Structure formats: structure tokens, C-alpha cells
Recover the amino acids of this structure.
């Protein structure tokens, strides 16, 4: 729904990295490079950010009628 | 004599070569860091109003996961909090969240207002929930000191170690070097002999040994380790490791006391009493 606040596996805080990650990847940077830049080294944390879909926006559509 | 040499360090990360202790001691410290160092986390949420699209319990769960700064020196010790030696209110902090959306907006961790100036979200930019125009949230949250063995939201950080690897090169083998570089690129130089054990874990090196057809042999130094600690930001690594040692020492002294009491109650020659 919303971006995970921590890595599901190791517990490292990740929530604050979601917005920079999203905007940089949408701007065309490679996700690999962005994750390296943000200091996300373990593969558990990488997949947590990489695999997230922010589908709260789909729910919010119904609230905005 | 045990010794430690720091090889990498910043506020949240510490890596060191530790020598001269049995693995059980290094492992104890690792386990205490992971599951016993106390930090603040929101544990009780009183929801006054929530018209957002997120269920109350989901919102409360997300609040719980927000890392909070933890100045351990300003609060009672965790054992005192747990044993009830001090009033539970002394080990907790109240935070409030009050937002009403005039337009579509995102609620961030920074919107949490804390009653204590030094207990606040570590990362103010964490998004908690999105609101549509007209929605609002009002709640009171109570953070308390806790340990990660109760819930992972109280985890202060991570730690791991590996045996200091010993690489024995039997013969120069460029094919083997290529394989090893694909496993541990940073650790190898121009030949197999140029190897930095602090940059390649023992297990990775074993992988490389297995695919090298006997060109190299991997052994490990007894009682020598590469240990790393990572703090999640609630406090600096230094504070985290210091607290871990304090807790571990406390456990050792509690064990010794119990042992002394048991032996005093049962004088020498108490074989029968022991079996009974």
C-alpha cells in the first residue's frame, strides 16, 4: 500500500529512501546505481525497495469522487 | 590477550578485526546487539480520529516501525523498566499526530510531535500515509523502551562476523583468479597472492575454493574474526555496542551469582542431592 518503512527481512529503515528512489528511477537513472548511491547494500533491502508498488493511489481515487 | 583493531568506522557502522577470544563470546555480543539492546518504539496508539483510507491497525503498525532517537543516558536502565523498579511512565514518551488535509497530501514521520525533545523520528522524511482532500487523522502514540526479542520494531541494529580467512595458494592459476574475482572482486589484486581477507568473507572464499580445482586452499585463523556492527540510527554504533557490553556483563554476573548460590546451598559431596 504505502512504501515499507523497514526492510522486511533485516529491519533496516528504508521508508525515507522511497521518494528519492522513485523520483530518480522515473527520471531515467538505473535502479542499480540509485540503490548503490543511497547506500542500500544488502540484497534483502534492495528487493524490498525495488519490488514495492505504491497502490494507495488506486484507493485514493475513490475518496476523491 | 584479546584485542580488536578497527578497520572501518562512521556514526552508524563499525568493522573490526577481533583476536584472541573464543567464538562463543563474539557470538554472544552479536546476539545481544540483535535482540537485547533497548530502543524507543511506539507501542500504544490511541486513535481519536482516522478518516484516511488506511485501517487504524495498519496505521498503528506503521507508526510502530518508525525508528525513534534513543538517548539511553536520559532514561532508566531497561532492567529497571522491565522489573517495575521505576514507574513505567519514566520509560515512555508521548507523541501526537494531528493532520487535516486541505488538499491531497502525504503525512510524514516529521509530523509526529514528541513531548520529549530528544526522542523523535530518526528519519523525518518517512512517508506514513497519503490523505485525500478533506481526510484527517488525530492520534496519541506512546513510545516505550523495549527489546527486539519482543518485537523487531525495537531492534537497535545488526551485527555479524566471519572467521578470518587464510588463503593458501598452491599454484598460480589465472582461470581461478577470474572465478575468485567474480565472487570477491574487491579482495583480489593482480594475482591470487594479492588478497585482502578483510574484504572477502570466509564463506565466499570457500565458494571460490570449490570451483578452483585445488589451485587454492582455504583455511581460517583460530580465534580471529572480522566483526561488523550496524546501527539503525536510533543511536550511534558506539553507544549501541557499549550498551550491548553492559547487558552482556550483567548477564554474566547474574549467572555467576546463581551458580554461587547453587553451590553454597549444596556443599561438597552432595552427589545424592544433585541426582535427587
Amino acid at each position: 500500500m504505502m512504501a515499507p518503512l523497514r526492510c522486511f527481512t533485516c529491519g533496516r529503515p528504508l521508508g525515507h529512501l522511497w521518494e528519492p528512489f522513485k523520483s530518480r528511477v522515473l527520471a531515467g537513472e538505473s535502479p542499480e546505481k540509485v540503490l548503490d548511491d543511497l547506500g542500500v547494500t544488502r540484497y534483502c533491502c534492495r528487493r524490498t525497495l525495488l519490488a514495492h508498488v505504491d497502490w494507495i493511489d488506486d484507493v485514493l481515487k475513490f475518496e476523491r469522487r | 590477550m584479546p584485542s580488536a583493531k578497527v578497520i572501518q568506522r562512521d556514526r552508524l557502522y563499525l568493522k573490526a578485526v577481533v583476536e584472541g577470544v573464543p567464538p562463543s563470546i563474539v557470538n554472544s555480543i552479536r546476539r545481544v546487539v540483535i535482540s537485547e539492546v533497548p530502543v524507543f518504539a511506539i507501542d500504544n496508539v490511541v486513535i481519536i480520529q482516522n478518516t484516511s483510507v488506511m485501517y487504524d491497525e495498519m496505521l498503528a503498525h506503521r507508526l510502530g516501525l518508525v525508528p525513534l532517537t534513543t538517548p539511553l543516558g536520559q532514561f532508566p536502565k531497561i532492567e529497571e523498566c522491565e522489573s517495575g523498579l521505576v514507574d513505567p511512565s519514566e520509560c515512555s514518551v508521548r507523541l501526537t499526530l494531528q493532520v487535516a488535509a486541505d488538499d491531497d497530501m502525504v503525512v510524514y514521520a516529521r509530523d509526529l510531535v514528541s513531548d520529549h525533545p530528544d526522542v523523535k523520528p530518526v528519519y523525518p522524511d518517512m512517508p506514513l500515509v497519503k490523505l485525500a482532500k478533506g481526510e484527517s487523522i488525530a492520534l496519541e502514540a506512546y513510545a516505550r523502551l523495549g527489546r527486539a526479542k519482543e518485537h523487531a520494531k525495537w531492534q537497535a541494529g545488526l551485527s555479524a562476523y566471519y572467521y578470518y580467512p587464510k588463503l593458501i595458494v598452491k599454484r598460480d592459476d589465472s582461470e581461478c583468479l577470474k572465478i575468485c574475482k567474480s565472487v570477491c572482486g574487491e579482495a583480489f589484486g593482480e594475482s591470487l597472492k594479492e588478497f585482502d581477507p578483510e574484504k572477502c568473507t570466509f564463506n565466499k572464499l570457500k565458494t571460490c575454493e570449490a570451483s578452483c580445482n585445488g589451485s587454492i586452499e582455504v583455511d581460517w585463523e583460530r580465534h580471529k574474526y572480522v566483526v561488523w556492527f550496524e546501527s539503525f540510527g536510533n543511536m550511534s554504533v558506539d553507544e549501541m555496542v557499549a550498551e550491548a557490553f553492559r547487558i552482556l556483563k550483567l548477564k554474566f554476573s547474574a549467572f555467576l551469582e546463581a551458580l554461587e548460590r547453587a553451590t553454597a546451598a549444596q556443599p561438597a559431596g552432595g552427589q545424592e542431592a544433585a541426582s535427587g
